[in-house]
Design brief:
Number of domains: 2
CATH class of the largest domain: Alpha Beta
Largest sheet: 8 strands, mixed
Mean pLDDT: 95
CATH architecture of the largest domain: 3-Layer(aba) Sandwich
Helix content: 25-40%
């Protein structure tokens, strides 16, 4: 399937010649980014400046609020977008830029592509990068499966007004870096949004091949026979109920000069019915999103390579379809995982940790400096943190802080949860080395993390990102987030890799 289109991106010290829509920001301290020429045009045409006009028309500082002001004639349409309470930070600007472009695209006239200019009065490189990323990510929309000719992207170009430096790292320009990051996010979104009859383990592996063909990344895909030969009992068990066999995708990026090694592991359940522990029908409808972790690690690895970051990255995406059938695995089955550990299966709807266990053991064999897994793993994490904040659990606080710092730099919300010492005892089994589910229903996200930790080799720092809440959004659009997949985790992984280059 073709990659999602993005608007072209440019940075200009002043208002560029082509501008169909000019977006400025409204903070508590007042309007930000109004070009002098636009202010003068408003005074000449209406007798009042832009700020007074915006106030009279009810413009508010609330994040994402929008007011469109009347044009001055030859100038662009003017949109005032709320930047939120207090002094706006980089993520506030990212969200505002995304909201502006998303709303501009939704209201664009049919068949007419527009040029959007965003002027938020940015003064730092981090603010510029945030605005550029938010605008590009906010332009994404999923094109429905249809026999009709697809509509062209309504926002054709985005220009960010910024008078300072545009160099992000070394000689890299924000106009080169931001599109790579944004494309990784929207690629993840696109994969999550594709219907499960079109994206299944084999086709998902093919998508990964197509993605990395333009990058210095080697790819290996283990199919059913190769998984059997290798002893990947977890992936084979979960995928055994489907006529579409599972896959394990391995990406390897080895740039010159890299001194650290990051391993990424992603859960790739392309559809989760719950297996023999069948989910209720209403809970099953969105379960095409259960591969969001695999999508995130694959897309992030491609972006890391495209950016040329000097860090070794090895990535595993464990892909399977969890369906009930006469070949499906059962509750109480004992599975022999990759590496030999035996697991008593507690519930076939706790399948993510089973496929992840195989991949984590394999990732440990590569002797990385850090392992990070990403998974839509537990409903318990949603109960604890809601649908906009992801959970983070780790081997130690230092590792957790490392990932949290990357998340903060990327503008993504993660919250550290503990793995209490007593949690491991809930996984004791009388018939195997351990059980996949806990002895009671409390602390489900923590128990799942404790299970995964058993498959990480001792001495290797590890972080687990449970993105079950924010990976898929069904509510009213906000900021750069529209309905469907969100691409959460991608920017954090890229920022983490960037931090490992120094």
């Amino acid at each position: 399937m073709p990659a999602p289109a993005l608007p072209t991106l440019s940075v200009s010290p002043g208002l560029p010649r082509r501008a169909d829509l000019l977006v400025v920001g409204l903070a508590e301290a007042g309007l930000r980014g109004v070009p002098d020429s636009v202010e003068q045009a408003y005074v000449k045409r209406f007798g009042v400046g832009v700020a007074e006009m915006a106030t009279s028309l009810g413009a508010r500082t609330a994040a994402g609020s929008r007011r469109t002001l009347p044009p001055t004639g030859d100038g662009p349409q003017l949109m005032v977008i709320g930047l939120g309470a207090g002094e706006p930070g980089s993520e506030d600007l990212r969200q505002a830029a995304g909201s502006a472009v998303r709303q501009a695209g939704a209201s664009a006239a049919e068949g007419r592509a527009i040029a959007v200019v965003i002027s938020f009065g940015t003064t730092s490189l981090s603010e510029l990068e945030a605005v550029a990323e938010g605008a590009l990510i906010g332009s994404y929309r999923y094109a429905p499966v249809s026999g009709k000719e697809p509509r062209p992207l309504p926002v054709e170009s985005v220009a960010v007004v910024h008078a300072g430096s545009t160099r992000v790292a070394g000689s890299a320009d924000v106009t080169a870096v931001a599109p790579v990051v944004a494309r990784a996010v929207v690629t993840t979104r696109e994969w999550v949004n594709v219907p499960p009859n079109l994206l299944y383990p084999e086709s998902f592996a093919d998508e990964a091949r197509a993605l990395v063909k333009d990058a210095k990344i080697t790819i290996e895909v283990l199919d059913g026979p190769a998984l059997t030969k290798g002893g990947y009992g977890g992936i084979l068990a979960v995928g055994g109920g489907s006529s579409r066999p599972p896959r394990l995708v391995r990406l390897s990026y080895r740039p010159r000069g890299a001194k650290q090694h990051l391993a990424l592991v992603g859960k790739g359940i392309t559809f989760d019915s719950g297996g023999l522990n069948l989910k209720p029908g209403e809970s099953m409808y969105t379960m095409k999103c259960d591969m969001a972790g695999a999508a995130a690690v694959l897309a992030a690895t491609h972006a890391i390579a495209r950016l040329g970051l000097a860090v070794n990255v090895t990535t595993y995406a464990a892909l399977a379809e969890n369906l009930p059938s006469d070949t499906a695995y059962r509750p109480s089955d004992v599975l022999t995982m990759y590496g030999g550990t035996t697991v008593e299966n507690g519930n076939t709807d706790a399948e993510g940790r089973i496929v992840m266990a195989d991949a984590l053991v394999r990732a440990g064999e590569d002797a990385p400096d850090l392992v990070v897994d990403v998974a839509t793993l537990t409903g318990a994490c949603i109960v604890a943190l809601g649908d906009r904040t992801a959970g983070l659990m780790a081997t130690d606080d230092e590792t957790a802080d490392r990932v949290l710092d990357a998340a903060e730099a990327a503008g993504e919300d993660f919250w550290q949860l503990p793995i209490p010492r007593e949690t491991r005892g809930k996984l004791d089994s009388k018939v195997a080395d351990l059980k996949s589910t806990g002895s009671d229903k409390t602390g489900g996200a923590l128990v799942a993390a404790a299970f995964l930790r058993e498959f990480v080799p001792a001495g290797i720092p590890w972080a687990h990102l449970d993105i079950a809440g924010p990976a898929y959004f069904d509510g009213k659009p906000y900021g750069y987030v529209g309905p469907g997949g969100t691409g959460v985790g991608v920017r954090t992984l890229i920022a983490l890799a960037r931090s490992m280059t120094s």
